[in-house]
Design a protein that fits this description.
Fumarate Reductase Iron-sulfur Protein, Chain B, domain 2; five-stranded mixed β-sheet; 12 helices; about 40% helix; Ubiquitin-like (UB roll); binds FE2/S2 (inorganic) cluster; two-stranded antiparallel ribbon; about 280 residues; alpha+beta; binds iron/sulfur cluster
């Protein structure tokens, strides 16, 4: 629009051939951007809501989050959605885009159009809807707690720090799984979460695998006890949808496989009381 205003201002000043050319060029660019408008359907309301259509100007290098933001700023200020960092760090902007869960600040429109001009944007699946594109992450966060995904220390501030050898297998395993941004994309992509709501899900189990491999933890068997319960790691069918969709390229399915092996070993050696529940 800035270009249009500039061109209009220049055009109302005494005319020259150059000014007329600038004005025509700006008009052409605006007309071309409107001709390339995206047809966007966005979920509005709670679980009983419906899709509402919007026409959004197509821009170069536009992300899905840019599209949602354009609608909220230019058409519908009541549209609810969540984001914070816009650079793929906070994990808060995930939504369902043309049927797949994605982080929207790092997903370019061009990547998901497949030659069409249509976008369908919904909240993440497998979670209650608060409003519009904002899903309620409470069940997702509670499962991290239930999977004992938090560190349990055994030293006081007066003790020396534990040394973790960088080349140790445990450190390597923890390194490979620790960079989770809590986006819940894997949780929304997992069919077992959909079929079995008590299933802890890939992100919580991925975190439990990190905790289990933290050799400084005071109760690593406690992690195995938590994930061996009903709804735990043995529920995973290893179909890898979590790994396929994880935007930061973690492999939760591999971590869950590690937990399965560790729980079975602990059970057979008698250290895991209470048994295994699939
Ligand atoms: S591999 Fe397991 S956790 Fe991952 S999507 Fe499949 S069932 Fe869910
Ligand atoms: S494992 Fe990947 S997809 Fe799942 S919450 Fe973490 S970053 Fe997101
Ligand atoms: S807004 Fe932070 S990851 Fe997208």
């Amino acid at each position: 629009m800035y270009e249009l205003y500039t061109a209009v201002l220049r055009a109302v000043l005494p005319c020259t051939h150059e000014k007329i050319t600038i004005f025509r060029g700006a008009l052409k660019r605006i007309a071309s951007s409107m001709a390339k408008a995206l047809q966007v359907e966005i979920w509005r309301g709670d679980a009983n809501g419906a899709f509402v259509r919007y026409a959004v100007p197509r821009e170069d290098n536009q992300t899905i989050l840019d599209v949602v933001t354009w609608v909220q700023r230019n058409t519908d200020p009541c549209l609810s959605y969540r984001f914070a960092c816009r650079v793929g760090m906070c994990g808060s902007c995930a939504m369902t885009v043309n049927g797949k869960p994605r982080w929207t600040c790092r997903t370019h429109v061009a990547k998901v159009l497949y030659g069409s001009d249509r976008l369908r944007i919904e909240p993440l699946r497998n979670l209650p809807i608060i409003k519009d594109l904002a899903a309620d992450l409470t069940p997702f966060s509670e499962k991290w707690q239930n999977a004992r995904g938090r560190f349990k220390g055994r030293k006081s501030r007066h003790d020396n720090l534990d040394r973790v050898a960088p080349a140790s297998n445990e450190r390597q395993q923890a390194n490979a799984h620790v960079e989770c941004i809590n986006c819940a994309v894997c949780y929304a992509a997992c069919d077992v979460v959909k079929w079995t709501p008590e299933y802890l899900g890939p992100a919580a189990l991925n975190r439990a695998w990190v905790a289990y491999n933290d050799t400084r933890d005071a109760d690593r068997t406690g992690v195995l006890r938590a994930v061996a319960k009903a709804g735990g790691c043995l529920h995973c069918h290893t179909h890898q949808s979590c790994t396929e969709h994880c935007p930061v390229e973690l492999n939760p399915a591999a971590g869950i496989a590690g937990l399965k092996r560790a729980t079975v070993r602990a059970y057979l050696s008698g250290t895991l009381k209470g048994g295994l529940k699939g």
